[in-house]
Amino acid sequence: MAWAYQASGDPLSAEELFLTARIGFAEVDFLSDVTCCDWGLALVARDLGNHREALAQLLAVSASFAEQKILVDSATAMVEAFEIMLALDQADDIERLATGLVATLTEAGRMESALTALAYIKEAAARKSITPEILRAASTFLRSVERHRDLVFVPPPVS
Predict the structure, then answer these.
(1) Is 122 left (phi over 0), alpha (psi -120 to 50) or beta?
(2) Could you tell me the pLDDT band of residue 7, with boundaries at 50, 70 and 90?
(3) How many other C-beta atoms can be found within 10 angstroms of the C-beta atom of residue 150?
(4) Which site from 3, 18, 40, 128 is most exposed, i.e. has the minimal number of CB atoms within 10 Å?
C-alpha cells in the first residue's frame, strides 16, 4: 500500500506506511524487506524535495541490496540515485558508478539485458549526453526485467 501512495503522489501517507512496515520487518529480521522500505523512504525524501537526503539513502539502499546479492534491485536503486546526481550537477560520478555496476553484474553472470541498460548509461555518461529520460527508461526497464527476463532494453529516442 505504501508503494501505491508513493506512486500516486501522496508521499506523507507513504512515509507513514513505510516506517510502520520497516519496524515490523526489522522485528522479524527480514533484511531485504527492511531495505525495500528504506528504498521507499528514499523516494519519499526525493518527492518531498530532500534531494541530498534521498541520494544518500538510495546509495545506502543500493549497497545493502548488493550485500544481500539482490543485484538488479541494487542497480535499480543506483539508477534512481543517478537521476538525483544529474539534478544536483554531480553527473561526473555516474560513469564511475555505472562502470562498477556493469562489472558487478558481469561477474555475477546476471541478465544480459540488465547489463545492456547499465552499459548504455555508462556510455551516455562518458559522452556527457546522459539525460533524465535515459535514466527513467533504464529504471523502468530494470524494475520489470527480473519478472520478464525476455525483455530487451530499448533506449529512449534522442530529442
Answers:
(1) alpha
(2) confident
(3) 6
(4) 128
